[in-house]
Structures are given as structure tokens and as C-alpha cells.
């Protein structure tokens, strides 16, 4: 999607579709959203059902399709599905687990069928931290070997990192490692306590803010793009910084695109970053291995099933998804925050903490202007 091309209406089409091909995986990650098992579920979407889903996604024109799991390489038809999606004009990337399934031959096949990018997870700058987090000894070495293969094949590499209490002290070391590995995108995830993820593994609200400010500080000096997941309030930090720099402009507005859209590639979405802020159910949607549709994999609220209705119909008509696309309905400080249209807070984390996906982001330290005004009136 290049400058000048119409930005998609997130009420009509998502920007990113995540499809959990299977929950089968050989790893035992401490934070696993899917609580992955070693064997495949016999009720997974079939190859034919998968191709019908891809047809629907292709008809929506805009979405990027991400194959995830579990481990998508546990499905024998993964490359058949990828090739079909590419033939239909869909941008496809994949996030396999670093297991013996990740061979150079598998990567060559992915390149041959036209996958746009391959993503690997690295949650520590050494094997002690990473292997502990992934629950599998040897995972770090397998990941590094796979990345070596990927670079040899000249395939674009994305590295995913989950920020938690296990690695927050080593961010500079992580940045240096990501740079050495020749990646095009560092996707930084912030833990949501769902699946195997635990509250005690999460960093504090103040630490979220510190990491956001650090990412904003380094983003223009590193040779890769940076994207965040379950960290919508990072956008607020970036925009606040832009507004401070443009303080002389009295007409400056809170605009996500101005702050984040100009990736190093010069395209609007800069290697997979949306041209405006996405959130759970708002430009983003998740399909489970058995066809259930959720606002995201971290927000397990069922909105329908693609075996019953098309994804496009569910995305546009689900009352749950419609409510998530209306920031004015958010509760607490998120509902009055001046950044709610570009941020909105993590709906997944709100749900995990309160049981209500419309509640405020519980790990944001920012106090909206409206709340500050009310405090001044009551104390003035």
C-alpha cells in the first residue's frame, strides 16, 4: 500500500487477519496464548475451508494474512495454503516456532511460494533467558540457526519479542542482537495475562511507559522498523513527542499517521505497520484453528465462526466488533481520553484485568486532559 492509495475503512475491512492454523506445537512457552498441545485437533479448518477463507480475505482487498499457531509448520498443507493466498493477491507472512520443523528446505519452499516475510521469536539475548521463557532447552540455538538460513536465502526477517519481567533489564542487549541479525522489523509484544501468561510475569505500568519512551528514542537510529503489539499507548507516547517538537504549530492535531506512518521503506505501512492505529477488532481480527472469530488472539470473546458465516460478514456485523470500533463507548479514562481514536488502550489487557473489554487500559499511566480539568475544578 503506497502513498496516495486510499486508507482502508476499518469498519468494513481489517488491516491484519491472523489465522491460527493449528494449536499443535513442540514448544512449551511460559506465556503461550494458545496453551499449545503436541497433537493437532481433528476439527481444524480443512484445506478446502482454508482456501474458502482465503478467497473471502482476498475479496476484502486490504488485509495482510499471518499464519500463526501453535506452529503452522505442523500442518502439511501450510505451503499449499500460502501459495494459494499469494496467487489470490494476499500478502502472507508466517510465524513458525523454532523447532526441528524449521529447515532450510522449508524456508526455501516458503520463498518459492512467495511468502512476504518470516517471523521468529527471540525473548532473550542469550539462551538462558530465551530457553527459560520458551520452556524448551535448545530453542535459542535452533532460532539462531534458522535465522542464519533465512539470511542466506535473503528472505526478510521479522523478530518478535515479548517484554516481561524476564528480559526488561536487557533491552539494550536485545536491540544490539536484533541489529546484528539483519532484521527488517522488530515486533515488540507486551504481555497480556491470558492462556499461560501470568500477571506476575508482566512489567508494571511505569515500566511500560519507560519501555515506550526508550523505543521512541531509538526508533530513528536503528536500521529496522519497530512495531508494537498489545501496546496501543505506545502511539500516545510517540505522538506526544511529535507534538512537543511541533509546539509552535498551534493547529497541531493528534494524528497517528503523522507520527508513525513514515517507515524506512517510504511506504504508508512501512513493512506491515498499519496506516492508522489498529486495535482488537478494529482493523485486526483473529481466526482460531477451528474457525472461531475473535477480536484478537489475546481477547477470547467469540464473535462467530467462519464455518457458519463469511469472515467479512462477521467482521462488519458482529455487535462485539462494532462496539470495539467505537472508542466513545470505552469506559473510564479511555472513554474520555483525547488519544482514544489513535490509541484506545489494549482491549485485551482490559478484558484480562477486569473481565470487560470496554474498560480502561489498566497499564497506562496517562491521565486524560478531561480528568485533569475535573480535578482542578474540585480542588481549585
TrEMBL record:
Pfam families membership: Radical_SAM
Keyword Iron-sulfur: yes
GO molecular-function terms, A-Z: 4 iron, 4 sulfur cluster binding; catalytic activity; metal ion binding
Stored PROSITE patterns: RADICAL_SAM
Keywords: 4Fe-4S, Iron, Iron-sulfur, Metal-binding, S-adenosyl-L-methionine
Gene3D superfamilies from the UniProt entry: Aldolase class I (3.20.20.70)
NCBIfam families listed in its UniProt record: TIGR04053 family radical SAM/SPASM domain-containing protein
Name of protein: Radical SAM protein, BA_1875 family
Natural source organism: Lacicoccus qingdaonensis
